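Researcher: Next entry in the queue.
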Amino acid sequence: MGFRRNANSSQIPVNVAVIKLDRLGDVVLCSQMLAGLRRAWPKTRITLFVRESLVDLARLCPDVDEVIGVPVDEGALFSGKHNVWRELLAKWLQCCNHGGLWKRRFDMVLVPRWEEDLYGAISLAYVIGAPRRWGVTETATPGKAIINRGFDQLLTHVIKGQSVRHEFLLNESFLHALGIQSPDHQKLTPWFKKADQEKAARIMAQAGVISFKKTIVVCMGAGGVYKMWPVESYARLCRTVFDFEIIQLVTFGTAAESCLGLRLKNILGDVVINLEGKLPLSLLPAAVSLGALYIGSDTGTKHLAVAAGLPVFEISCHPLDGEPYQAESPLRFGPWAVPNRVVQPAKATAPCEKYCASGKSHCILGVSIEQATGALRSLLEETGLQAVCRSGTFDLLPEGK
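Model: Structure for this entry, 401 residues:
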């Protein structure tokens, strides 16, 4: 354990842990920060901690030396147990002991999460025992000030601030707090190689993807039903806008979401190739990169599409007049630095107020087919993809046409 000194006599850590226990999209959004760490500290060993289900994906990151998966309980914080944090602390102590984490002697731990710490990343950083622990203040958002009260005491370096900005910029400001200049490129780092694209292309071809047709990446699942626009609405949108002789709709998602792709295929026919649950996570970034356009929800797959440089058409559940710091807000998690359109309901649907608090598709139903059609056509024109559109006047087609 220790620090090197560079030409400016500043200390450079030898062994750094970055703890990112969030979902797929949040991990992908961390790519530029990891690239900044690697460029500034080329000889530093960087270990990335992620939830166990994302280990294969995280290992694609070119800027980390090691990936460690840890168990994450999605619902633990809201289980109602009075001793939930005590149980979480016991779990981390067991992980450190059995995983030999104390022997690694990390000299710095970074926790780049701006909203509530729902998975115990700060407590894990504390248990690991590094002498320097960087994290974002517990007062960064109103919800965090309540749920994570007292967490700042577990950190040695607290990054202040409450401004609402895109997650990309927030990760960038984390670098600035460490005294590191941002990478020259202002884009997410793609996590795939040419060989991965070739493997993904073979699997997609076996599933029925035709190489000479434009591939439209469709992701209708979202990890939460309230974030999902109806499959029937996707079908009508695609039927109205796209020329099915030129394009193919390739659906991506988890095995649990395979029913969504099947429903879309039942409506639209063979133009839909359902790959939900049929690709290993390690090939998902490469497979998405083979598309010409992303259409769908605010998902981790969307951020993979952004990293690959695809234009993005997002259908958001977050109302235009909603609270900007909410996790569904496009101001924080919308497509970054690629041509895009984000369609949102004008207002929350009662009884929701400033964000969608429903357990089903609710506020997102305020996004009309007409609204989505106009925005999608606009994006296609901007990106030079007009050739994939149906010929004619582009009036909304009636159901079944």
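Model: The chain is about 35% helix and 15% strand.
Researcher: Noted, moving on.
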